[in-house]
Amino acid sequence: MSRILITGSADGLGQMAAKLLVRQGNQVILHARNEARSLAAQKAVPGAEMVITGDLSSIRETIAVAEAVNKTGAVDSIIHNAGVGYREAKRVNTVDGLPEVFAVNSLAPYILTCLVNRCKRLVYTSSGLHHQGDDSLRDLAWTTRAWDGFAAYADSKYHNVLLAFAVANRWLNVLSNAVEPGWVATKMGGKGAPDSLEEGPKTQAWLASSTDKAALVTGEYFYHQKPRPCLPSAKNKSIQDQFLALCEESSGISFPG
User: Fold this and answer.
1) Which active-site residues does the annotation give?
2) Where does residue 142 fall: left (phi above 0), alpha (psi -120 to 50 degrees), or beta otherwise?
3) pTM, to two decimals
4) Model confidence over 82-123: pLDDT tens digits?
5) CB 81 within 8 A of CB 8
């Protein structure tokens, strides 16, 4: 049995992964961005241990989420699932003046990785769209580029793979991997999404808890429990270093050695 935190688990794939892991006998900590969604999450996954509330678009609240997790005791695994979609027609600014897509999808996983007490496994939810991400890492805050919601989302999913691999390269005692759940019919994916919704949460849950030899790896990109090629530049350590430095600049939080 593992103790697992799943960010963004009030609905969608996060909630589905939570239900799966609870059925398997794991202790699951849910996360939601506000009290109303926390209550809904608790009702939807009654076997969960608790719900931690905090808006990951805010640096201050993300730090508070990390502190709240640490106060609960040791966590074995984290599934970084929280995310906002790719249809933002205009830039949505956070309280910190950052684009919401970057703040929630890219920066929040970085902050939580830095501040939650180091655990055994980290799983970062990416997307096949990461192949279209900008590996120059220019203008992450979209201050000079004309806003493009689709491109911002693709960039953020590339950042998730970069972060997963950066952790794998630096923390040799932690299993850190990225997952492509597929384009599935969640609220974010839309009704016409073609991939299997049933399969969507399985790989995240498997990487977070399974003792299968195939799951006990690090620095891999998975789709439906099988390794899949990622954008090759995500394995470039200098680009990983650059991303960590840019996240530190945005958040004021340095990556632990």
Assistant:
1) 153, 157
2) left
3) 0.94
4) 999 877 889 999 999 999 999 999 999 999 999 999 999 999
5) yes
